[in-house]
């Protein structure tokens, strides 16, 4: 199994595609996955390889938006796992994703994450307006950023917190991260005081290195992850098999382990 | 005898013709290479119309990112020149033990991948970093500020200036400095009145290269500075961000960087020629 | 009045010399290339530090390893004309000549006046605003001389002052050089490998071989049988008529 990230994949992928013969191609599976599912997708893909000897899964983790741009530019993906159903729909409307293949995978919601050392002493969502706090959020172009904006809007509409609260929170934002992976990494390193990320752990590493503080339901946002088969790729039996695999028991158990709620 | 001469003549003609066809291939190759470098630039220009370009440029966010890049790049370059000039000078005029090591270290960031530089700087100046933790106690924050950008730019682009400065100082004969000393000039007077004026074109072009490299720096800056429009979103980072949903903005900034690069090239060529005339 | 007594380890051998120079005297040091001639000049100026010995000039100790004195080049009042003149290419003739005075913080109008006086004496007045690179070899040599003399040194050193000139200009320049040094009243040491230069310029000639002075005396000491001594091998004609 090989994991790449970002646009590097486009270059390497195109080179290997052009050099690949039809036979070898049917044994590789290119999975473009939202960074928020790094941990579970890695484990699920690995087990898929074990159960389907000869298949090699090559995974590209990046922000959903970046992956969408790569696929639009012709990157060789077989499967696209998206953190934002609208983006998946957008691609399928443009004929890049096979509309009939789209399935929901799992969902999660947002939470506050802090380093284990918790330098700012955060216990609760209402603590994030304290002056001088270094807060990380996702860039508004990526799903986590969009969900965060929705959440902040809900907070603004709450008369108890309202605009003064969200204004103070916005002042505390020190960086709009371009992918949730960077956001979590910075928190793990202790570079910032807090971040707004997914409630589910994005990887094994993040499980142990951060503290997850839940956000009250009234402000929280459901983030549904879905997947689809890329139409451009030539008929790949492994793609369909993997989509089925995502809905099977093993995948569901892994997703649950990481804190996701698998789709019914 | 005549036959021999005829053979030699024929051989020379053939050699001449063979040489010309070889030359043609070289020209074709050169044309291919030139196109390879020019086409991406042209494709950028083709993707945007002039009014969209101007509109994008007047957007406040984009103006902010351009100003930020110039501001941080400018300060980084000034600091590099102030600190790097005496260092480069010392290394050309004195031999000391470990000099080879020092010069290799000064060259290192040139070959180091920017992402590696970024991580290294993060672990040095981050809140829990080697130096960063000490600064944090003093209340000075480096990460997520323009200071981090400047540090990253200095780290990545500084060695370019130091290299040029070294070469510029080497081109000034030390005999001239000796003459200055015998005439009564102190080492500082000699440096300011003799060495510096004679080395100035090399130093200028070094500074220009340092500035251009600073503005274009991306991998290291995103790691240590994060992404905050208006405060830490430099031009390359803006391109990366805007590519998601404002293609015109991204292309506009990219075009500015292209134009800037051309200007840098022209200026450096001019300075190099002036240096050779001196 | 210059007293020099120094020892210095060179690459191939030990430089070990001792001599004195009287005021208004021109001493020529002659020897093969690599004998150590330029090294002596560099040691007197302070560019090189000898291993041991003493140098004093007009009563001031420039170097003494016993007393641990070693004055910096800029602290010694010595004018040095380098072999390739070492004129500053980014400055005009006038600026070059004024350089030493400028470093010593002489006020602008005084230094200009002093420099111009020398330029007039040496027929360089018309070139005063030209870049030194535009001058001929002989003119450049005169600029180097003016530059060294304008600071009113106690001693003048010249390293192969005529070697960069072609044979024709050499004769003319050599005569003028002698006159100029004489008129300045500054004692001088000229280093050369050319016997004609030595003969014309020197009040005393000193022969250097492998780091040691093997002969020293007035020029006529060297006329005579070529086979007699090493010194005379430089002057391999019985009489000179230059």
What does this structure look like?
The complex is a heterotrimer of chains A (264), B (278) and C (242). Chain A is α/β, with parallel strands linked by helices and 264 residues long. Chain A has two domains: 2-107 and 224-262, D-Maltodextrin-Binding Protein, domain 2 (3-Layer(aba) Sandwich), CATH 3.40.190; 108-222, Periplasmic binding protein-like II (D-Maltodextrin-Binding Protein, domain 2), CATH 3.40.190.10. Chain A contains eleven helices and eleven strands. Chain A has helices at 7-19, 22-25, 38-51, 64-72, 85-93, 143-157, 162-172, 180-189, 204-209, 237-246, 249-257; strands at 2-4, 28-34, 56-62, 79-82, 103-115, 135-138, 173-177, 194-198, 210-214, 222-229, 261-262. In chain A, strands 1, 2, 3, 4, 5, 6, 7, 8, 9, 10 and 11 form an eleven-stranded mixed sheet that branches. In chain A, strand 2 (28-34), helix 3 and strand 3 form a beta-alpha-beta unit. In chain A, helix 3 runs antiparallel to helix 11 (249-257). The relative contact order of chain A is 0.20. By secondary structure, chain B is mainly alpha-helical. Chain B has one domain: MetI-like fold, CATH 1.10.3720.10. Chain B is 82% helix and 0% strand. Chain B has helices at 2-46, 50-57, 60-93, 99-111, 114-125, 132-137, 146-170, 174-182, 187-216, 219-225, 235-242, 247-277. The radius of gyration of chain B is 25 Å and the shape is globular. Chain B starts with a helix and ends with a helix. The model of chain B has no long low-confidence stretch (mean pLDDT 87). With 242 residues, chain C is an alpha/beta fold. The radius of gyration of chain C is 18 Å and the shape is globular. The interface between B and C is medium-sized, with 18 and 24 residues.
Throw out a few tags for this protein.
heterotrimer; A: 264 residues; alpha/beta; D-Maltodextrin-Binding Protein, domain 2; eleven-stranded mixed sheet; 24% strand; C: alpha/beta; Rossmann fold; 7 helices; 11 strands
